């Protein structure tokens, strides 16, 4: 991995030599059909608490008939309390709750370990398995204690707090807040132009899932700092696991497909507040939003050919449909960068605002919209989306699988290495 904060001086070059070396080694291994038999690396996304789409157990599982006695009542109450938590406790806590629930109702972990690509179930299995032979009664008591701690901290932390301050816990790379019927998901890596790391893709998936179930009318995606997003973080491709570059490409394609799928399936009005330049995947998924508001400072750039890559985010379908095939080709094949005005004229952007009044005007507008009848908005969106949902999922699958191959191409690898050796900036 290149150093995150240094200029591209000698240490960077040394680090890059390592990255390039690894790429070449993986490349050679692939060329001779070799495979590493190493276990999952310690930094694997499944091991990160922000990477699991977890349901709190009380919401999805029935109480086992074997959990009896006085504490059974406490246990049931605790499960009901979980449903009433005002704040998302975060994935780490959800994993603990899951594990304790399973231990309390079924005893020690008794199922086979899920496969390496089944990230969520693997994380859940590991949490349960880690409890070893903890007695059921102790697990039940620990579950009750954990929920009781969560309930009191949730009550005291939200008491007296204005809605505007209700920041959701459990996210590291995005900030999720709710105010006046609007849930805002803000990309929060301003120093890296909000480039999307694997953790960020996962957190956005989780944030969208949470927003789809909360009581807000509208959900907004925006960026912190001067960029909306510079697209995929190119270091995603330099972090090669011991399983090799093909496994990396496969996992990335799965992540991409899930990420885009969560935009296709999002059930409420979804708004992009494009606060600055947008690159790559942050542009392509805009075709799946219901409103796109942009500052006049924003630009829209999909330099896929320059990077040896191909379109994603369903843009191979949505862009020609939105702007016509000729203009779509200019963006998606030739990488033409559009100004906000051009993107608006071509139908990708709903409205452009002067940068000086952008935030004020946009939020005034959105607050008014959020007071419209929620169900009517939701149903209208669903009628519109239902007409082509299946088609969008099929396109997403196809684009992801083509990219899986592209990422293994020398065109793509060279482009990434050029970026990190500063030969090629967009
Ligand atoms: C799970 C995988 C799914 C993959 C889906 C497929 C997605 C495809 C795409 O999104 S393609 C688009 C990829 N993006 C790019 O190629 C953009 C690359 N970045 C740039 O060209 C420039 O950084 C810039 C034009 C966005 C901004 O230039 P400038 O204003 O001069 O700023 P800096 O370059 O100094 O950037 C500051 C800092 O951020 C780092 N950075 C910016 N963008 C990225 C990025 N996309 N990936 C990794 N790092 C990025 C940059 O290196 C600087 O870091 P430093 O301060 O030097 O440590």
Could you please describe the fold and organization of this structure?
Keywords: Acetylation, Isomerase, Mitochondrion, Peroxisome, Phosphoprotein, Transit peptide. Able to isomerize both 3-cis and 3-trans double bonds into the 2-trans form in a range of enoyl-CoA species. Has a preference for 3-trans substrates. Its EC number is 5.3.3.8. One of its GO terms (molecular function) is fatty-acyl-CoA binding. With 426 residues, the protein is an alpha/beta fold. The protein contains 16 helices and 9 strands. Helix 3 packs parallel to helix 6, helix 4 crosses helix 5 and helix 8 packs antiparallel against helix 15. The longest helix has 23 residues. The radius of gyration is 23 Å and the shape is globular. The N terminus is likely disordered. The structure holds ligand LQSD347O. The site of ligand LQSD347O has 26 residues, from helix 7 and helix 8.
Count of extended strands? 9
What hetero molecules are bound to the protein chains?
Answer: ligand LQSD347O
Strand fraction equals: 5-15%
Largest sheet: 6 strands, mixed
Structural class: alpha/beta
- Note the total helix count: 16
Low-confidence stretches: 1-68
Large-scale geometry: globular
Q: Fraction of residues in helices?
A: 40-55%
N- to C-terminal separation?
A: 21 Å
Radius of gyration: 23 Å
What string gives the helices and strands in order? HHHHHHEEHEHEEHEEHHEHEHHHH
Question: In what order do the strands lie side by side in the largest sheet?
Answer: 1-2-3-4-6-9
Average pLDDT figure: 82
Pathway: Lipid metabolism; fatty acid beta-oxidation
Protein name: Enoyl-CoA delta isomerase 2
Enzyme class: isomerase
GO cellular component, one term: mitochondrion
